[in-house]
Amino acid sequence: MMIDLCQAVLGRFVVVGAIVVSGMFLSPSAAPVSLAHAAPIQDSTGSQTRYGAEDAWLTGGLTVAAGDPHSSGGYVTGFTKPGAEAVFAVEVPADGAYHVTLHYANGGQSSVPLVLTANGLMLARTVLAPTGGWAVWASQTDNLSLRAGLNTLAFSSVGGGGNLNLDYLQVSGGSRPAARGATVPYVEYEAENARTNGVIIGPDRIFGDLAAEASGRKAVTLRKVGQFVEFILRQPANGMVVRYSIPDSPKGTGITAPLGLYVNGRFQRALTLTSKYTWLYGSYPFTNNPAGLGGHHFYDEIHLLLPSTLPAGATVRLQIDPGDTASSYTIDLADFEQVPAPYREPAGYLSLARFGADPTGAKDATAILQRAAAVAEARHQGLYIPPGHYTITGHIILNEVTIRGAGPWYTVLHGAGVGLYGDYAPNLNQMYPANADGKSGSSTHVRVYDLAIQGETTDRVDAAQVNGFGGSLGGGSIIQNVWIEHTKVGMWLDGPFSDLLVVGCRIRDQTADGINLHDGVSHVTVEQTAIRNTGDDGLAMWSDSDPDSFDVFRNDTVQAPYLANNIAIYGGHQNSILNNYLADTLTQGGGINIGNRDYGSAVVPLSGTILVAGNTLVRTGQVDPNWGYGVGALWFYAQTQNITAKIIVSHDEIDDSTAEAVQFTGNETVNDVEFDHLTIDKAATFAFQVQSDTTASFSNVVAAKLGVAGVYNCGNVFTATHGAGNSGWSRTVCDNLQSLAGAN
Fold first, then answer.
1. What are the CA-CA distances from residue 155 to residues 23, 56, 381 (Å)?
2. Coil, strand or helix: which one is 367?
3. What is the 3-state secondary structure (H, E, C) of 129-142?
């Protein structure tokens, strides 16, 4: 249940009532996050989790300075203006009070006040006393009430007039975050590892096959009455997500079919599964017409709350019963989690219920929600959306307002065309005049927490504005704990704008991208977000006519995109890809793509330093049907311009690549890539496939289990500087790539 955070005096903190903390832009001088602080650090006691301030999301003019001998390596400074804010994403195992320690220096003569919020709700005001000098560090520890799982803790300047240096935040008893990928609230169980009397399909990586689109390239197919998949819980859970596939209808409109759900051997209910949102045919951008052949996009998900919390050791079975009408049921995986009770309406918020919105979904609530958001903005209050399924059939335009639900399992905005949008950037007002609300430029300080968006998108129409989030959302905006399904793109955000945090979200079953930062989007961090089953890039930065800059994708999980890449950077300046877990690319893409490319017009070229560090890529890369040969798990594409940006690849791991591990390709040159501590464990062909003139340096690059050789190069200039620690990839060959691809 939700903990009321504004009802007590906590240690030195004195509650002063609800506030709205304004957000500001990140300093353009901010450098990419260093690998040394790319993830939270577990201290030596094993019971405290430390988060470097330099890795917090920073707004309002805060900057990162180099550490001194008494700091942890770097620190944040600049708390001189109202609204300066440092936001930490922290993990704790359960609801409760935690010792939270702030390590800081205050070299001024006066105490400096800060406001502390958790998940956008005010906790308290704290006052940090002078420490006797800027090189003198002190710690302040207090007991703070946090909710189980992910929390955002924000320290915000109140009145300005004083400065602080923040070194780190430490949470005693906190959960250890995942070193790579998102720290998610669920445990994932693969069907092929469960009890079953069905047929295990796969492993398979052939586009158009059921197993190829499955997580781990395996799944279980049930065809006869009595066939089942049974999961044994390793942890208590009361919520379940099933990823499944059932056949399409002859006309391509989908079917609906029941499937039995049993708990501890007893029938609970029949799940209603559908293929309405799956099955695409033909060539890009694909249709629902089976005459186009080439069927793909097989999987969808259903989620449900179980009757009660099941203990570890409980069994959950999916079984074909008499009357279950689909000709087959393919089960890929199930996620089980402990879902909290609905979050209550915070003090001082307006409730959508007071505006007459129908929580059953029988009546359209689009106009009501838009009016309520406008009233909340005008009154400087938050808007709470109680539990319910609200029918929303258009864009809700937001600006300077906080929207909060009861949790994504309870508060659902559902409908054809549903979307939460910032105001459109000036160049897009002309493109979509019917959707613009008359304002100019980006929306600012929009904060959305704890709800779900479920669309009705069943095909891909690139011009359609049917995205979960869209428009321009900058100026200190935050999107946290939002679950998005069945829209075209989870978040398609159009610049120019600056300053957005996306944290702790789930994006599932899109017909295009998961998140796309398009055209002049800067100082955006996407972290602790899990994306699965997208019809284009899972995460993308696309510098169409203006450069995306100083953006970071970190500690995210991207699984099973059925087209394109897990992560891609198309042009732009000084962007970073850090500590992500990427798996199961299918076709026309790889795990990570860095490129100067042509999408109707050449992107703004890559510049500055691009950092690719701490990522794990599993079963990524593919044999491209258009090219007839492999695309790398990590690939650099100099299609339209030379790649002259400095690219650093550090402490990454490529496992079981479908083709080559790393690829350089394109008509132009790749000029400056630095590899340091890259591990390649199994690639179907090569460690490095060189198809453009390339200059790169290599240290501590270790490869094993290569299908053909270390390097493929047939006449391109490959200027390779070899440092220490390289092994396993010294042999170079020039073979026919088409024949090698056919062998895989």
1. 12, 10, 20
2. helix
3. CCCCCCCCCEEEEE
How far apart, in whole angstroms, are the C-alpha atoms of residue 729 and residue 688? 8
Quick: pLDDT tens for 507-528: 999 999 999 999 999 999 999 9
- DSSP conformation class of 334: E
Q: What is the per-residue pLDDT across 272-315, written as a single tens digit (0 to 9) for each?
A: 999 999 999 999 999 999 999 999 999 999 999 999 999 999 99
Q: What is the pTM of this model?
A: 0.93
In the DSSP assignment, the letter for residue 409 is: T
Residue 37: phi, psi to the nearest 5? -125, 30
| Tokens 């995460």, located at residue | 539
N-terminal to C-terminal alpha carbon distance within the chain: 51
Q: From residue 308, how far is each of 116, 337, 494 by CA, in Å?
A: 35, 12, 43
> Cα(141)–Cα(505) distance, rounded to whole angstroms?
29
Count of C-beta atoms within a 10 Å radius of residue 164: 27
Say if strands 195-196 and 228-232 run parallel, antiparallel, or are unpaired: antiparallel
Residues in the chain: 744
Over range 77-104, report the average pLDDT.
92
Instruction: Give the other-Cβ count within 10 Å of 261's Cβ.
Output: 20
Residues 6+ apart with CB under 8 A from 517: 493, 495, 524, 540, 541, 542, 548, 551
Q: Tell me which residue of 496, 452, 499, 491 sits closest to 468, measured CA to CA.
A: 491
Do 6 and 18 form a contact (C-beta atoms < 8 A)? yes
Q: Which residues contact 266 (CB under 8 A, 6 or more apart)?
A: none
CB contact burial 614-635 (16+ within 10 A = b; e otherwise): bbbbbbbbbbbeeeebbbbbbb
